[in-house]
Structures are given as structure tokens and as C-alpha cells.
Specification:
This protein has about 200 residues and is α/β, with parallel strands linked by helices. It is built from eight helices and six strands; from the N terminus they run E-H-H-E-H-H-H-E-H-E-E-E-H-H. The protein is about 40% helix and about 15% strand. Helix 1 crosses helix 2.
């Protein structure tokens, strides 16, 4: 294992997890603060437990991505971000900035795309990277240098063996599995009659 470890946080994944884990917190002016509090709590825990040498966060930007241009129905059924979560994003980003953690965003691309690009470039420099996300799509990137640090199950880090144990195939086949099964969250239909089993 490399001494240089990079933790890349999917900011939107972190935001949603924080938002739904802690409800009904506001400041004295009535501004919701639950996602801000949850995000900072999870960030502190991640840093304390892992002590990464490098860390960065990526967020989605509003607007269509290149996937929408290729498939108009992409994420068409996904509900927009709740207003009381959206109102906290600026404060979350301010908090991340206060930690002196860089934030990456790129119009036309999702945070996942940005994280994947950074992870692959880090790999070229022999840096071990942990992508902190709840998105299964990231599992296709797992290899000897890139791992997925799951936000869904505490302590679960996907290496190549963990991917095989959960999905029956290696990371290189995750896109095939997702294409066959479909993905309701992204409105990817999959093949009729083929599911997880």
C-alpha cells in the first residue's frame, strides 16, 4: 500500500446521507442546518478514523450532463433535491472550504465523473485512492489502487474481492451487470426479465 492515500468524497452522496440521518435541526432564524451538521460530523469522523494524507470533495452542478444528451430519459423520474437540503449546500461548501479541502465541480459532468478522473490520474502517480460514495457505479473503478469506501454500510471498503463477493463478478464487469439489471435511480431500463438474481 502506498503511503500517499487520497480520499475523494462524493459531496452529494454525503449531503443526502446527512440530510436523511438527522432531521428537523434549524438555527435561531429557522434556516435548516441538519445536513450541514451531519456532513461536518461525517467528515470529522472520516478524517479522524483514516487520517488521509490528501482529501477532496466533488459536487454535482445543476443542469444536464452529457448523459442526458445521449439518453433523454436519464434520471427523468428522480425527484429534485428537497428545498431545505438545497438551501444548505452553500453552507456545506463554506464548511468544506474552511477545512481547506478543495472542491471540484464541472458543468456537464456529475461528481462521479470528476472523482473517477481524479482517481485515475492519482493511480498514475501510484497513489492509493478511496472514493467515498454510496453510488454502485463507482465499483467499476476498483482495482489495486482504487477502492470504494461505502457510505451505506459503516466500515465497508470495496476492494476487488469485496466486489466479487457482493456481485459475483469483478469490477471490470460491473457495467455489464448494471446494464443487464438496469438502475431505477438513473432510469436505466435494463433487459426485460433480468434482475439482481
Amino acid at each position: 500500500m502506498s503511503k500517499n492515500r487520497l480520499f475523494l468524497i462524493d459531496g452529494n452522496s454525503f449531503c443526502y446521507r446527512a440530510y436523511y440521518a438527522i432531521r428537523h435541526l434549524t438555527n435561531s432564524k429557522g434556516q435548516p442546518t441538519n445536513a450541514v451538521y451531519g456532513f461536518i460530523t461525517m467528515l470529522n469522523k472520516l478524517i479522524k478514523e483514516n487520517r488521509p494524507e490528501m482529501i477532496a470533495v466533488a459536487f454535482d452542478l445543476k443542469g444536464p450532463t452529457f448523459r442526458h444528451k445521449k439518453f433523454e430519459e436519464y434520471k427523468i423520474h428522480r425527484k429534485p433535491m428537497p428545498d431545505d437540503l438545497a438551501s444548505q449546500l452553500q453552507f456545506i461548501k463554506m464548511a468544506v472550504g474552511a477545512y481547506n479541502i478543495p472542491i471540484y465541480e464541472l458543468a456537464g459532468y456529475e461528481a462521479d465523473d470528476v472523482l473517477a478522473t481524479i482517481a485515475k490520474r492519482a493511480e498514475e502517480r501510484d497513489i492509493d485512492t478511496y472514493i467515498v460514495t454510496g453510488d454502485k457505479d463507482a465499483l467499476q473503478l476498483v482495482d489495486s489502487h482504487i477502492k470504494v469506501y461505502s457510505t451505506h454500510k459503516e466500515g465497508l471498503i470495496y476492494d476487488e474481492e469485496a466486489v466479487k463477493a457482493d456481485f459475483g463478478v469483478g469490477p471490470e464487469r460491473i457495467t455489464d451487470i448494471m446494464g443487464l439489471m438496469g438502475d431505477a435511480s438513473d432510469n436505466i431500463p435494463g433487459i426485460s426479465g433480468i434482475g439482481e438474481k
